[in-house]
Design brief:
The complex is a heterodimer of chains A (245) and B (225). By secondary structure, chain A is an alpha/beta fold. Helix content of chain A is 40%, strand content 25%. Chain B is mostly helical. Chain B is flat. Classes of the chains: A alpha/beta (245), B mainly alpha (225). The complex binds adenosine-5'-triphosphate (ATP) and magnesium ion (MG). Adenosine-5'-triphosphate binds at residues 13, 16, 18, 36, 38-44, 87 of chain A. Chain B: One of its GO terms (cellular component) is ATP-binding cassette (ABC) transporter complex.
């Protein structure tokens, strides 16, 4: 049974249809990447998973249990198991780095402050941000905020981690730092769904690549297959450009 | 001008004025604090509440902000007893000022609700935070930081203009005491000069207090003047 099953989901913003029946599975401990041109709906897929954008058709299952997005209890249960790192990090601006990381574990999960803070410092250390624990987001660079956002998501102890373009705001040196952290998590068996434009990284870390265009899955295959010998014309065209460019 | 200032009468009764100033400060702080709580609930309802509750809040705000505070307090003091509700003059000022401040603060705080970053609210939501928790941990710090100057100004308005209305129904706050004392020996000019200076000192102290509070609690880089 897949850890996360996305079965033909549809979604729209207002009257604009954005997802037209997206399906793919993520097994436990697997790393799956969503790739595709800008505007193809990758972020929207992640948003529907965590219940921010309503699903207008199809369904999502976690561990075989389907999520009812109209039931707040069901959504809460789903959010309890998944954590998302947004493309724009979305840190709490009026809270220190440590505050950002400890808020939900303390207030939502009701865990003890000391324990949560110790764990938060370990996580910040993991992403190389422990020295900025008492800084505020507006005092950090984009890449630093990105790494804090990753630590904040991990502090929720998710089973499934959703990462949206976590390297887009980083300089090459930091890209490697963040990718190392992601690699380590993958090695530890964290189930991950990531959106990325870093094709070299996608190839290395993921066991499956889902190629999307205009709200549809065009092709899903292991990286070697989809990069080097895709079945679809559209995928060949896209990867031909990004891999060369 | 040939007026012969005689401040020694005032100094003799200075402790009475001080008592008045102390009551003024208490009235102002209470009405502002309670008004902030009302305003927070009102602004939250206007932003996230169901339609019938939103209408109730709108009626409250429109009604209060379009009538003079004096009339509201007179209503509590003179009209409510007709319905068998009798409050002391101090209670009437306190309740009247609080309801009045609550309506204005609903409008002021609403601006803070509107300008909070949606992305932060979404992040909180996906982390499992309930709406009250998101208000408490995301909206309130944002409001405190972004509209702190407006809030501080409003506090001064209540402290100076709001509380002095109490004098008209015999509450012995600073203005009331100045009136009481000067009717005894007709030293109006002296008493009111000193009372005015005391108001200035009060607002000065309040401004410094608010600036320090803002810096300490909300990282607001507020200038004192
Ligand atoms: N809040 C919104 N309101 C209306 N339309 C939106 C909104 N967010 C996204 N869209 C539209 O939905 C489509 C998919 O957007 P989405 O953000 O999922 O794309 P993406 O694949 O993540 O792109 P990128 O690689 O640029 O991040 C786009 O056409 C976009 O214009
Ligand atoms: Mg995106």
């Amino acid at each position: 049974m897949p850890h996360l099953a996305v079965n033909g989901i549809h979604a729209k913003y207002g009257s604009l249809d954005v997802l037209h029946g997206i399906s793919f599975d993520v097994d436990r401990g697997e790393v799956v990447s969503l790739v595709g041109p800008s505007g193809s709906g990758k972020s929207t897929v992640l948003r529907t998973l965590v219940g921010l954008t309503p699903v207008t058709g199809g369904g999502i299952e976690v561990d075989g249990t389907s999520i009812d997005y109209r039931s707040s209890r069901s959504v809460r249960a789903a959010r309890d198991r998944m954590a998302i790192v947004f493309q724009q990090y979305n840190l709490f601006q009026n809270m220190s780095v440590l505050g950002n990381v400890t808020l939900a574990p303390r207030r939502v999960k009701g865990r003890k402050r000391q324990e949560v803070e110790a764990e938060a410092m370990d996580l910040l250390d993991l992403v190389g941000m422990a020295h900025k624990a008492h800084a505020y987001p507006d005092e950090l660079s984009g890449g630093q905020q990105q790494r804090v956002a990753i630590a904040r998501a991990l502090a929720l102890r998710p089973e499934i981690l959703l990462l949206d373009e976590v390297t887009s705001a980083l300089d090459p040196e930091l890209v490697n730092e963040v990718l190392d952290a992601v690699r380590r998590l993958a090695a530890e068996g964290m189930t991950m769904l990531l959106v990325s434009h870093e094709m070299a990284f996608v190839r290395e870390v993921s066991s499956k690549v889902v190629f999307m265009d205009q709200g549809k899955v065009i092709e899903a295959a292991p990286p070697a297959k989809i990069f080097d010998a895709p079945d679809s014309e559209r995928a060949r065209d896209f990867f031909g450009k990004v891999l060369r460019g | 001008m040939n007026y012969n200032f005689q401040f020694n009468v005032v100094w003799r009764n200075f402790d009475v004025l001080l008592e008045g100033a102390w009551l003024t400060l208490q009235l102002g702080v209470f009405a502002f604090t309670a008004g902030c709580l009302i305003g927070l609930v009102g602004a939250a309802i206007r932003s996230y509440g169901p339609a019938p509750l939103r209408w109730l809040v709108n009626i409250y705000v429109i009604f209060i902000t379009n009538t003079p505070a004096l009339i509201q307090i007179y209503f509590l003091y003179f009209a409510l007893p007709e319905f068998g509700i009798r409050w002391s003059n101090e209670a009437c000022v306190l309740i009247g000022l609080t309801l009045n401040a609550g309506a204005y603060l609903t409008m002021i705080l609403r601006a803070g609700f509107l300008s909070v970053r949606q992305a932060e609210m979404e992040a909180g939501e996906t982390m499992g935070m309930s709406l009250p928790q998101r208000i408490r941990y995301i909206v309130v710090p944002h409001i405190a930081k972004s509209i702190y100057p407006a809030l501080a100004n409003f506090f001064i308005v209540i402290l100076v203009m709001g509380t002095s209305v109490g004098a008209l129904i015999g509450v012995d706050e600073l203005t009331g005491q100045a009136i009481n004392l000067s009717t005894v020996n007709y030293r109006w000019l002296e008493y009111f000069t000193v009372a005015a200076l005391m108001y200035v000192v009060l607002t000065f102290i309040a401004s410094i207090g608010l600036a320090l509070l803002g810096r300490w609690a909300f990282r607001v880089k507020a200038r004192i003047f």
